[in-house]
Structure to design on (291 residues):
C-alpha cells in the first residue's frame, strides 16, 4: 500500500511524528509518500520514503489538528482518496489517531480492518446585488457569516428553498454539515449530527431575539442568506478560508455539493462517546494550557 503523509511543521516540530509514522508504515510493508517540498528534511532521508504525488496513494494521513485536516482535504479532495488524521492539535474531532495508537492504526488499515465514512460537503456561492458571481468555495465543515471588526450587529434575511424564514439580527449565522456539527455550530448551541448523515444545519450566533432556533434541513434544500445595508463589513468564512469582500445586498447561496469526502473510521469508539470524550479532554487541555 502507498500512504500519503502531510505534516504540519508548526505542530509536528522537527517532523518527529512524521518520522515515526513513516517507520511504522515501512515496517508493515507500506510506502510513505511525501510531497516534493519535503526534500531535504529528515523524513526525506529515510530509506523507503518517496517524494511525489498523492494521486496513486491508498490513504492520505494528516499530522496536526482539525485545521490541518481541513486544509489537506481542500488541497486533495478531488483525488477521491480517503483521509485519516494523527492528532497534534487541541483534541481534534477530525483526527482520531493518537501518537500512541499509530502502530495499531497502520496495522488496521494495512489489514483492511476499517470502514469508510462518506461525508457530505457544502457548495457556497456569493453573488452581488446584480446577480454576478463574486466567489465560490467547497466546505467540509461549515460556512459562517460573521459581523465585522466592530461590535455592530449584522442584518441578514434567511431563505430556505426560496421561502423567507426569518429576518435575523445578531452576530451571524453558521451553515454546517454533519461533520461541522462538532465545530462552530456546537459552540453556538446547535445539534449534533452523525458524520455520515445528509443534512444541513443552520444555527444563529447571539441572535437579538427571545428565541434561538437551529434549523435542520434536507440535502436537496438550498439556503440563501441575503445581506442588507451595513455600517461594518461582515465576513464570510467557508471552512476558515478567505472569501471575497462583502458588499451591501450581496447574496450567499449554499447547497449540498455533489461530491463527498471519504474518511477512514478505525472503530475505536462510537460517535457520541468520541464527542463526549473529546469535549471533556478539550476542557482539560484549555484549563491546563500555559497560554
Amino acid at each position: 500500500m502507498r500512504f500519503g503523509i502531510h505534516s504540519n511543521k508548526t505542530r509536528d516540530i522537527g517532523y518527529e511524528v512524521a518520522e515515526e509514522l513513516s517507520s511504522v508504515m515501512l515496517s508493515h510493508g507500506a510506502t510513505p509518500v511525501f510531497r516534493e517540498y519535503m526534500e531535504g528534511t529528515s523524513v526525506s532521508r529515510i530509506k523507503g520514503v518517496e517524494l511525489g504525488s498523492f494521486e496513486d496513494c491508498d490513504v492520505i494521513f494528516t499530522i496536526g489538528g482539525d485545521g490541518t485536516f481541513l486544509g489537506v482535504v481542500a488541497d486533495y479532495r478531488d483525488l477521491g482518496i480517503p483521509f485519516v488524521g494523527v492528532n497534534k492539535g487541541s483534541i481534534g474531532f477530525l483526527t482520531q489517531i493518537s501518537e500512541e495508537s499509530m502502530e495499531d492504526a497502520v496495522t488496521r488499515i494495512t489489514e483492511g480492518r476499517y470502514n469508510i465514512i462518506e461525508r457530505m460537503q457544502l457548495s457556497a456561492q456569493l453573488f452581488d446585488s446584480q446577480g454576478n458571481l463574486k466567489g465560490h468555495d467547497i466546505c467540509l465543515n461549515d460556512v459562517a457569516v460573521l459581523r465585522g471588526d466592530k461590535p455592530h450587529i449584522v442584518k441578514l434575511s434567511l431563505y430556505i428553498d426560496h421561502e423567507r424564514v426569518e429576518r435575523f439580527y445578531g452576530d451571524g449565522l453558521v451553515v454546517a454539515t454533519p461533520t461541522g456539527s462538532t465545530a462552530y455550530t456546537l459552540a453556538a448551541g446547535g445539534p449534533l449530527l452523525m458524520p455520515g448523515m445528509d443534512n444541513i444545519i443552520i444555527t444563529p450566533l447571539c441572535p437579538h431575539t427571545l428565541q434561538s432556533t437551529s434549523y435542520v434541513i434536507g440535502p436537496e434544500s438550498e439556503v440563501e442568506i441575503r445581506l442588507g445595508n451595513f455600517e461594518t463589513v461582515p465576513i464570510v468564512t467557508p471552512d476558515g478560508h478567505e472569501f471575497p469582500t462583502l458588499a451591501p445586498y450581496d447574496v450567499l447561496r449554499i447547497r449540498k455539493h455533489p461530491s463527498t469526502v471519504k474518511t477512514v473510521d478505525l472503530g475505536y469508539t462510537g460517535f457520541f462517546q468520541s464527542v463526549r470524550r473529546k469535549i471533556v479532554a478539550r476542557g482539560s487541555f484549555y484549563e491546563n494550557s500555559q497560554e
About this structure: The first strand starts at residue 2 and ends at 7. The chain has a mean pLDDT of 92.
